[in-house]
Write a structure and sequence with these properties.
Blueprint: H1 2-10, E1 24-28, E2 33-37, E3 43-49, E4 56-60, E5 66-70
Antiparallel strand pairs: 1-2, 2-3, 3-4, 4-5
Length: 73
């Protein structure tokens, strides 16, 4: 998860604030996906397979919109 986490940090989806609050990447056992949680523990984004079955997409949980596509190499 290191490379994926770094990519999400660069794009502002995971943050580390100076006051100690942070969001983080976590595996979800219920939905078999990765999720981004804010400092309060709420899920803000899901990392899922794209419709082509190869790439990944980062979907905003509140809007349902895809915010980022991560192409497979």
């Amino acid at each position: 998860m290191g490379c994926l986490e770094e990519m999400l940090i660069r794009n502002g989806l995971i943050y580390r604030a100076p006051d100690g609050t942070q969001s983080y990447l976590e595996g979800s056992l219920l939905s078999n996906t990765l999720v981004v949680r804010n400092s309060a523990g709420w899920v803000t984004h899901r990392v899922e397979r794209a419709c082509n079955g190869v790439d990944l997409v980062v979907r905003n949980v509140s809007t349902g919109c895809v915010e980022m596509r991560i192409a497979a190499n």
